[in-house]
Predict the 3D structure of the following.
Amino acid sequence: MKTKLLKPTESVLKKASRLIRRGSLVAFPTETVYGLGGNALLGSSSQKIFEAKGRPSDNPLIVHIAEIDEAFSLSSDLPGNFFKLAEKFWPGPLTMIVPKSDIVPFETTGGLDTVAIRMPNNETALDLIRLSGVPIAAPSANSSGKPSPTKAEHVFEDLAGKIPIIIDAGNCNYGVESTVISLVGEPIILRPGAVTKEMIEEVIGPVQISDAVTSPLKEGEKVQSPGMKYKHYAPNCEVFIFEGNSEEFSEFLASIKNKDGVYALCFDEEINNLPVPYLTFGTVNDEFKQASLLFSRLREFDELGASVVYVHSPSREGIGLAVYNRLLRASGFKIIEANRKKIIGLCGQSGSGKTTLSKIFEENDFFVINADLVARKVSDTDKAIKLLSENFGEEIIENGVLNRKALGNIVFNNKGKLELLNKTLLPLISEEILKAIDKADRKFILLDAPTLFESGMNNVCHLVIGVIAPFDLLKERIMKRDSLTEEEAISRLSSQKSDQFFKDNCDIIIENNNDISAFESKAYELLNSIKEK
Ligand code: TXA
Ligand code: MG
């Protein structure tokens, strides 16, 4: 299918509205972000939306209307607060969740018996809804998981070939999606946006903000808004949030400036002091500007080929809470704090002597986190088991627990499957490791992680140590230690990263050549130099 970018002329809007009525999809601008619209009353249209976005179909869509009265047909049970808020904030960036009526298909609501309704404050959007003569279901018009589109070009990047028309009316005003509030039961904000808690409370009195706005979901916790379950708004590069003042931010960046692909997202005031390449997203106090630029900046980092982006944490005032909430999701809740603990990464091939080194560090004030143990614990959680069985089939689960051997057989010597395994588990493991770092009550932390680089955790380390040893020595050691045949040992070693990889990527290399006392004294020397700094 050829996708046309068209300006919102009368004839374009008429054509688009005919497409919507008949069940096709059209991307259109709103005051928040671009939406991917379909006829909200046709289950088949909503299915097409999920397909085009690659979105899980249990994540419900927002239904857009042009007159308050249209809400009567979408809900049989509109509470008083609905009218108070609609009167005050519509058209505008507020979405209200209310019980749904029978005419709203379950495809649109992701199987829920509630429906999210909003009236956008954008002439093109309102004209399109009116001309269509039906309410328009529209999520943000990005591929699922990517940053939301704030320009028509962003929609084109993600959805070209999948939809017939993108109506191009320039940049969106706000740049973050609408505030979502549930009015089923006590009012609660599920997603922050430009309409803030304070603004809402002036109209209807006290409202809650869901914990999920600023914290990751706990295991097994029931979600109020299915959208909160998923990683979101994420560019291809890895995102970290940095908490601290400008000076601390630039000091932190200086400590890692020689790494490839490192960028910063900072405030306009900070550009003179940054030791790494950067993009800015407005001045410190201009939360509106930050909101309007955030998503397009995240996309720009991908174009620049960034591998890691450190974002200076914005204020959480007003619309700033929405910016912070989107950043938390883009980063997978990875936060780095100033004055943080000193984190030393340790990696190397199996049998190289990492354990010996980590014991020495542990006896000398270091808190040691063993990533293999964390990985083991994580892979036994319900969350991991669910993801693993989705990706590798039910046969790797036995009586509800992971059958490591079965999984091992699948990924062994299969690069694609091994990558899939890493992609599934590493984010969960990283999250656990960051929690462990947070909890550790020591200043010095040694992170013993064979897959330090694969997991991206090297980016939170001040320094990475690589331990290497001659191949024959490694082979002998792991044959003895793990009772392997020579063949098994060789195959295991050759599936790991090479010496050269560690030499190229670690800050410090320690060689372990069978002279244990020489190795130990190198370890002590290193330990002391780290503690002195
Ligand atoms: O600003 C916006 O709201 C944009 C523009 C296009 O209008 N739309 C948008 O839609 O952001 P979407 O699908 O990307 O996000 C909708 C959010 C999701 O987090 C979804 O889970 C939640 O609203 N939601 C929708 N219906 C819901 C319901 N019945 N109950 C709970 N959450 C709901
Ligand atoms: Mg979205």
About this structure: The pocket of magnesium ion (ligand 2) is lined by residues 139-140, 148 (CB under 6 Å). The mean pLDDT is 93.
